Every structure is written in structure tokens, then in C-alpha cells.
């Protein structure tokens, strides 16, 4: 279960695939411009998501049910309700993970954690520490691969801090392949897939809300239970 928890943190909203690029009506630079305008207008955001996580080496599959609340510039709460109960909070530059099953609280410095693990939280906290889908597309070197009736589809191959554009069959050591479907009507990610040597993550996001009054208390931790605090480690 600890391994599953680490993958959930890794794959809040990421993805994978290799597609032969066809001609698209919208060029990548135009899509990025639209995403930047959308991102700039976002002050707060909440949504639900489901993830299907398959560990390929263990032949095990888990279904994750969760929701998140994000408020600029640096506050995030992620509540996982199934199959385990966890709350992930980012506030004041610190990443916290409360595991209610083991009564353990994990912590990490966000900047240090993100620097050492560049594929963590890219849709929520990018290199510029803000919610920025356009920055994710730029940082991971995503390319427009197709345009569907309701979606723009972008994809990339990423390994050890480097983007690859070749069509090599199979995975390099440490390679992750991503594919993201961006809904045309909202410019929000609707589906995100990620595949690596060890796991495949399929994420579906829904019920986006941008107009609401967030409760500041949701970004603080409950100290009444006295959980054991440990440094967050990545496998």
C-alpha cells in the first residue's frame, strides 16, 4: 500500500502514449497561448478525479477516487477516499501527506522535493510554483499529436530530465510516456495517461469549479491525533 501511495502522489495528473502526429488545425504555439490565458485567469480551482493504476511487474490494479482544492499561489488540498484514506496538503512551501490507515504523517520541502522529482505535481506546482498547464506542456516538451472533435491531444516521452522525440519502440530506463486530452470547451485536462516500466496510470478529471469561496482551514492539518511524522521518500 505504501508503494501505491507513492504512485498516487507521483501521478496526481500525468499521462502516456506514442502517436504518429497528423496535421492539426491548431498549432502547438496557439494552444499554449490559449492555455496561458486560461491559467492566468484561474485564482482557485477544485475538481474530482479517478485514477486506474496498474503495476505491470506485479500484475496488480488499483482504482483511486479523489478530489482536490487549489488556491493561488501555493495552497493545495488533495483528499483520497478510496481504496485508502489520505490527505495531501501543500502550504507555505511544505508538502504533507496524512496516511490515516497507519496514523503516519509524511513531510517534504516542496522545492527540494520537486527539484529531485521533476515529474511530481507538474499540473499543480510547476517550476514557477503555480498551476500552469501551459508550463507543463513546455517543460515536458509536449507536442500536438492529434485533434479530436472535443479534445486537443498532446504527448511526450520523458526520461531523467530529458525529452525524446524519436519513435523508439519500448521504454528507456526511467522513461515515462505521457498523453493528455485537453477539452476544447474549457481548456482543462479531461484525461491524462502515464506509462513507465513499472506502472501505468490512467486519470479522468471532472466537475471542475473555479467560482467558490475556499475555507482556509482546509489547508491546515489536524494536530489532535498526534501522528508519527516521517520524511517523504520516493521509490
Give an account of the 3D structure.
A hairpin with a 4-residue loop joins strand 5 and strand 6 (104-109). The protein contains four helices and 13 strands. It has 235 residues and is α+β, with helices and mostly antiparallel strands. It has helices at residues 2-10, 28-41, 110-116, 133-139, and strands at residues 44-55, 60-71, 75-82, 86-91, 94-99, 104-109, 143-147, 151-159, 162-164, 175-183, 189-195, 199-209, 228-231. Strands 1, 2, 3, 4, 5, 6, 7, 8, 9, 10, 11, 12 and 13 form a 13-stranded mixed β-sheet that branches. Helix 2 (28-41) packs antiparallel against helix 4 (133-139). The protein has a single domain, classed as Lipoprotein localisation LolA/LolB/LppX (outer membrane lipoprotein receptor (LolB), chain A), CATH 2.50.20.10. The protein starts with a helix and ends with a strand. 16% of the residues lie in helices and 42% in strands.
Amino acid at each position: 500500500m505504501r508503494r501505491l501511495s507513492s504512485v498516487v502522489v507521483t501521478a496526481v495528473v500525468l499521462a502516456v502514449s506514442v502517436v504518429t502526429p497528423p496535421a492539426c488545425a491548431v498549432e502547438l504555439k496557439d494552444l499554449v497561448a490559449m492555455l496561458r490565458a486560461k491559467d492566468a485567469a484561474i485564482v482557485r480551482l477544485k475538481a474530482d478525479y479517478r485514477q486506474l493504476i496498474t503495476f505491470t511487474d506485479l500484475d496488480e490494479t488499483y482504482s483511486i477516487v479523489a478530489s482536490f482544492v487549489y488556491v493561488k499561489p501555493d495552497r493545495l488540498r488533495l483528499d483520497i477516499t478510496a481504496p485508502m484514506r489520505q490527505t495531501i496538503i501543500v502550504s507555505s512551501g511544505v508538502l504533507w501527506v496524512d496516511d490515516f490507515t497507519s496514523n503516519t504523517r509524511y513531510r517534504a520541502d516542496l522545492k527540494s522535493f520537486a527539484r529531485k522529482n521533476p515529474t511530481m505535481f507538474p499540473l499543480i506546482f510547476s517550476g514557477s510554483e503555480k498551476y500552469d498547464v501551459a508550463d507543463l506542456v513546455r517543460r515536458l516538451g509536449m507536442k500536438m499529436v492529434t485533434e479530436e472533435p472535443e479534445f486537443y491531444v498532446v504527448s511526450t516521452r520523458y526520461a531523467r530530465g530529458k525529452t525524446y522525440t524519436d519513435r523508439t519502440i519500448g521504454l528507456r530506463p526511467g522513461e515515462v510516456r505521457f498523453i493528455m486530452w485537453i477539452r476544447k470547451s474549457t481548456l482543462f485536462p479531461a484525461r491524462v495517461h502515464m506509462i513507465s516500466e513499472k506502472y501505468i496510470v490512467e486519470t479522468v478529471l471532472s466537475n471542475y469549479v473555479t467560482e467558490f469561496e475556499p475555507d482556509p482551514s482546509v489547508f491546515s492539518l489536524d494536530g489532535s491525533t498526534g501522528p508519527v511524522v516521517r520524511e517523504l521518500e520516493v521509490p
